[in-house]
Hints:
alpha/beta, ornithine cyclodeaminase, domain 1, 2 domains, seven-stranded parallel sheet, globular
Amino acid sequence: xxxxxxxxxxxxxxxxxxxxDHLMDAMISRLTTTFRxxxxxCYSIPARSGFTYHNPYLGLLEWMPxxxxxxxxxxxxxxxxxxxxxxxxxxxxxSTVSSYDTHTGHLxxxxxxxxxxxxxxGAASAIATRALMHPDSRVVGLIGAGAQAVSQLHALSRVxxxxxxxxxxxxxxxxxxxxxxxxxxxxxxxxxxxxxxxxLASDADVICTATSVEIxxxxxxxxxDLKPHLHVNAVGADFPGKFEVPLTLLQRSFVCPDFPExxxxxxxxxxxxxxxxxxSLVDVIQQPEKYAYAQQMSSVFDSTGWxxxxxxxxxxxxxxxxxxxxxxxxxxxxxxxxxxxxxxxxSPTYHHNSQS
Length: 356
């Protein structure tokens, strides 16, 4: 009855020993395999839920559960606080992920998911981009240059050759610092200001939007002089009323949600009718020939985040921790030898048996 915990210091060691590229490649590979083999009858995945508050600034605490029938439950708890970087020196997104045994309810594992969320979100965009982008795509535009933009660009660089990157953020300091944060990718990165945003949008073959735009304040770029085959990874829409992509672009594009039920509530899909939505990411990966035509037109990957991705990311982390002898097993739950006596574990006469 021990819980395996992977603290931040051990995740750091995993990254150092395994390498960021290898971790991203493994995440892309595992997610692709999972999507290809996915059978909805084997899972229960409700749309996420949570609390929104102003304390005094906008915040959100939400939970994203997934149950693989007759196997395990994973639950990610996410804190989303857009003011964190400037006011608290913390990431916008902080999260943890836990896994449970469905035979007993025992908490099997617990880990930081802040790094994992960035990794799996980037990997999902890379998978969608590889499936939907025009084969000649070489130029990437990033709108929003925060933490997610780093993993978005890293993931894209693992699935196609990038000749040039343009980046824009509403905060000029964030825009300027981006090149240093992605220096490990050895890519040509051009920061642009507001006057260059239209050029970014018109030159890009692939755009990633990962902003903290406020509810009702989108769109974050204009539908003007865009390439006819433009692919967009829309990552920032995560509230009802919050969106990043121009409606006219959505209406003429192949729109591919990661999790349709959730995307209709809080993604770019909330602005469209059901008949305006293309196949989900699972559909596209399972039936590539059917959706190959989307590579010749504009497309939008509506990435709201899917708990299934978190389960796969947690499993990946657990595997590497096991290989490297990292993590710690502790008795987190107070379990008595007498299951009908909740106080027995605290009794002076209770003698712990390490084998029980």
